[in-house]
Amino acid sequence: MQTEPVVTYRNVDPSPSVDALVARRVEALERINNRIVGCETVIEAPQKRKVTGREYRVRLTLSVPGPDITVTRTSAKGSAREDLALALNRAFSAAEKLLKRQKKTMAAIKVKHHPPVLHGCISLLEKELGYGYIRADDGREVYFQQDALTADVWDQLAKGTRLRFRAMEGEKGPYATAVSLAGAG
Average pLDDT for residues 64-72, to the nearest whole number? Predict the structure, then answer.
Protein backbone atom coordinates (compact mmCIF):
# COMPACT_ATOMS: atom_id res chain seq x y z
CA MET A 1 0.00 0.00 0.00
CA GLN A 2 1.41 3.39 -0.96
CA THR A 3 -0.13 5.29 1.96
CA GLU A 4 -0.73 4.16 5.51
CA PRO A 5 -4.30 3.11 6.35
CA VAL A 6 -6.29 5.87 8.05
CA VAL A 7 -8.77 5.11 10.85
CA THR A 8 -11.10 7.94 11.86
CA TYR A 9 -13.38 7.79 14.93
CA ARG A 10 -16.51 9.96 15.15
CA ASN A 11 -18.38 9.96 18.47
CA VAL A 12 -16.52 6.76 19.36
CA ASP A 13 -13.53 6.44 21.69
CA PRO A 14 -10.39 5.23 19.88
CA SER A 15 -9.42 1.68 20.75
CA PRO A 16 -6.15 -0.21 20.18
CA SER A 17 -8.08 -3.47 19.69
CA VAL A 18 -10.17 -1.88 16.93
CA ASP A 19 -7.01 -0.49 15.31
CA ALA A 20 -5.47 -3.99 15.41
CA LEU A 21 -8.60 -5.52 13.84
CA VAL A 22 -8.55 -2.91 11.05
CA ALA A 23 -4.83 -3.56 10.44
CA ARG A 24 -5.41 -7.34 10.19
CA ARG A 25 -8.30 -6.90 7.77
CA VAL A 26 -6.32 -4.42 5.62
CA GLU A 27 -3.48 -6.98 5.37
CA ALA A 28 -6.03 -9.55 4.20
CA LEU A 29 -7.25 -7.12 1.52
CA GLU A 30 -3.67 -6.58 0.35
CA ARG A 31 -3.25 -10.34 -0.11
CA ILE A 32 -6.25 -10.28 -2.46
CA ASN A 33 -5.04 -7.26 -4.43
CA ASN A 34 -1.53 -5.92 -3.91
CA ARG A 35 -2.30 -2.78 -5.94
CA ILE A 36 -4.31 -1.04 -3.20
CA VAL A 37 -3.11 2.57 -2.99
CA GLY A 38 -4.85 3.62 0.22
CA CYS A 39 -7.50 2.65 2.75
CA GLU A 40 -9.67 4.95 4.86
CA THR A 41 -11.92 3.57 7.57
CA VAL A 42 -14.45 5.82 9.29
CA ILE A 43 -16.13 4.47 12.43
CA GLU A 44 -19.03 6.54 13.67
CA ALA A 45 -21.91 6.42 16.07
CA PRO A 46 -24.85 8.76 16.65
CA GLN A 47 -24.03 11.63 18.97
CA LYS A 48 -26.74 10.72 21.44
CA ARG A 49 -27.05 7.21 22.77
CA LYS A 50 -30.46 5.73 22.04
CA VAL A 51 -32.54 4.01 24.66
CA THR A 52 -32.37 0.74 22.75
CA GLY A 53 -28.56 0.69 22.43
CA ARG A 54 -25.75 2.12 20.35
CA GLU A 55 -25.64 1.85 16.60
CA TYR A 56 -22.29 1.80 14.77
CA ARG A 57 -21.65 2.65 11.15
CA VAL A 58 -18.43 1.78 9.34
CA ARG A 59 -17.51 3.37 6.01
CA LEU A 60 -14.55 1.84 4.21
CA THR A 61 -12.96 3.47 1.15
CA LEU A 62 -10.29 1.62 -0.82
CA SER A 63 -8.23 3.56 -3.35
CA VAL A 64 -7.28 1.21 -6.16
CA PRO A 65 -6.39 1.61 -9.85
CA GLY A 66 -9.69 2.18 -11.60
CA PRO A 67 -12.78 3.18 -9.66
CA ASP A 68 -12.43 3.36 -5.86
CA ILE A 69 -14.36 0.90 -3.72
CA THR A 70 -16.61 2.34 -1.00
CA VAL A 71 -18.57 0.19 1.43
CA THR A 72 -20.84 1.27 4.29
CA ARG A 73 -22.16 -1.20 6.87
CA THR A 74 -24.22 -0.65 10.03
CA SER A 75 -24.72 -2.91 13.03
CA ALA A 76 -28.21 -2.11 14.21
CA LYS A 77 -30.16 -5.36 14.43
CA GLY A 78 -31.03 -7.18 17.62
CA SER A 79 -28.21 -8.01 20.02
CA ALA A 80 -25.61 -7.06 17.39
CA ARG A 81 -26.57 -3.40 17.77
CA GLU A 82 -23.67 -2.59 20.10
CA ASP A 83 -21.04 -4.76 18.41
CA LEU A 84 -18.48 -2.56 16.66
CA ALA A 85 -16.37 -5.57 15.56
CA LEU A 86 -19.39 -7.00 13.75
CA ALA A 87 -19.89 -3.81 11.76
CA LEU A 88 -16.17 -3.72 10.90
CA ASN A 89 -16.08 -7.35 9.79
CA ARG A 90 -19.20 -6.91 7.66
CA ALA A 91 -17.69 -3.87 5.93
CA PHE A 92 -14.37 -5.60 5.27
CA SER A 93 -16.08 -8.79 4.03
CA ALA A 94 -18.16 -6.78 1.58
CA ALA A 95 -15.01 -4.92 0.46
CA GLU A 96 -13.24 -8.26 -0.13
CA LYS A 97 -16.04 -9.42 -2.42
CA LEU A 98 -16.03 -6.16 -4.37
CA LEU A 99 -12.23 -6.17 -4.59
CA LYS A 100 -12.21 -9.72 -5.99
CA ARG A 101 -14.90 -8.82 -8.51
CA GLN A 102 -13.05 -5.67 -9.60
CA LYS A 103 -9.74 -7.52 -9.88
CA LYS A 104 -11.37 -10.14 -12.09
CA THR A 105 -12.98 -7.46 -14.27
CA MET A 106 -9.80 -5.38 -14.55
CA ALA A 107 -7.72 -8.45 -15.44
CA ALA A 108 -9.75 -8.90 -18.63
CA ILE A 109 -9.20 -12.62 -18.79
CA LYS A 110 -8.86 -13.72 -22.38
CA VAL A 111 -10.72 -16.89 -23.26
CA LYS A 112 -9.02 -19.29 -25.63
CA HIS A 113 -11.19 -19.70 -28.72
CA HIS A 114 -11.17 -23.08 -30.42
CA PRO A 115 -11.46 -23.35 -34.17
CA PRO A 116 -14.88 -24.47 -35.42
CA VAL A 117 -15.59 -28.09 -36.36
CA LEU A 118 -15.49 -28.51 -40.13
CA HIS A 119 -16.57 -31.32 -42.44
CA GLY A 120 -15.08 -32.58 -45.67
CA CYS A 121 -14.10 -35.57 -47.81
CA ILE A 122 -10.69 -37.15 -48.30
CA SER A 123 -9.29 -35.96 -51.63
CA LEU A 124 -5.88 -37.68 -51.41
CA LEU A 125 -4.75 -40.48 -49.09
CA GLU A 126 -1.21 -41.86 -48.83
CA LYS A 127 -1.80 -44.82 -46.46
CA GLU A 128 1.81 -46.06 -46.56
CA LEU A 129 3.20 -42.62 -45.67
CA GLY A 130 0.50 -41.85 -43.05
CA TYR A 131 -0.94 -38.62 -44.40
CA GLY A 132 -3.61 -37.25 -46.68
CA TYR A 133 -5.63 -34.19 -47.69
CA ILE A 134 -9.21 -33.31 -46.90
CA ARG A 135 -11.28 -31.11 -49.18
CA ALA A 136 -13.34 -29.11 -46.70
CA ASP A 137 -16.94 -28.20 -47.52
CA ASP A 138 -15.80 -24.57 -47.89
CA GLY A 139 -13.38 -25.65 -50.69
CA ARG A 140 -10.06 -25.51 -48.80
CA GLU A 141 -7.50 -28.32 -48.98
CA VAL A 142 -6.40 -29.28 -45.46
CA TYR A 143 -3.46 -31.57 -44.67
CA PHE A 144 -3.87 -34.32 -42.06
CA GLN A 145 -1.74 -37.07 -40.56
CA GLN A 146 -2.59 -40.47 -39.14
CA ASP A 147 -1.67 -39.11 -35.67
CA ALA A 148 -4.49 -36.52 -35.91
CA LEU A 149 -7.19 -39.22 -35.84
CA THR A 150 -9.13 -39.45 -32.59
CA ALA A 151 -9.82 -43.19 -33.07
CA ASP A 152 -7.96 -46.09 -34.67
CA VAL A 153 -9.81 -45.94 -38.02
CA TRP A 154 -6.85 -45.48 -40.42
CA ASP A 155 -7.58 -48.79 -42.17
CA GLN A 156 -11.22 -47.73 -42.81
CA LEU A 157 -10.23 -44.52 -44.63
CA ALA A 158 -10.41 -44.22 -48.42
CA LYS A 159 -10.71 -41.45 -50.98
CA GLY A 160 -14.14 -39.81 -50.59
CA THR A 161 -14.59 -40.80 -46.90
CA ARG A 162 -16.46 -38.09 -45.02
CA LEU A 163 -14.56 -36.66 -42.00
CA ARG A 164 -15.03 -34.01 -39.35
CA PHE A 165 -12.05 -32.01 -38.07
CA ARG A 166 -10.73 -28.73 -36.75
CA ALA A 167 -8.45 -26.71 -39.04
CA MET A 168 -5.39 -24.95 -37.65
CA GLU A 169 -2.93 -22.68 -39.45
CA GLY A 170 0.62 -24.01 -39.72
CA GLU A 171 3.83 -22.72 -41.30
CA LYS A 172 3.10 -24.55 -44.58
CA GLY A 173 -0.67 -24.02 -44.61
CA PRO A 174 -3.74 -25.39 -42.88
CA TYR A 175 -3.62 -28.75 -41.11
CA ALA A 176 -6.34 -30.82 -39.45
CA THR A 177 -6.56 -31.82 -35.80
CA ALA A 178 -9.14 -33.92 -33.93
CA VAL A 179 -10.02 -35.82 -37.12
CA SER A 180 -12.83 -38.39 -36.88
CA LEU A 181 -15.31 -40.12 -39.14
CA ALA A 182 -18.27 -37.85 -39.81
CA GLY A 183 -20.76 -40.57 -38.81
CA ALA A 184 -18.90 -41.33 -35.56
CA GLY A 185 -19.57 -39.19 -32.42
Answer: 89
Domain topology for 117-181 = OB fold (Dihydrolipoamide Acetyltransferase, E2P) (2.40.50)
**Cα–Cα distances in Å, from 126 out to 52, 129, 158, 169?**
89, 5, 10, 21
Domain 6-107 fold is Double Stranded RNA Binding Domain (3.30.160)
Give the residue from 114, 163, 116, 115 showing the smallest Cα distance to 143. 163
Average pLDDT in the 134-145 region?
Answer: 95
Cα–Cα distance measured from residue 168 to residue 176, given in angstroms and rounded to the nearest whole number: 6
Domain boundaries defined on the chain: 6-107, 117-181
Look at the pTM and tell me if it is higher than 0.70: no
Q: Are 129 and 137 in contact (CB under 8 A)?
A: no
Distance CA 182, CA 121 (A): 9
Q: Print the SS3 string covering 44-58.
A: ECCCCCECCECCEEE
Q: What is the DSSP letter of 114?
A: P
Give the three-class secondary structure for 164. strand
Q: How far apart are CA 120 and CA 138, in angstroms?
A: 8
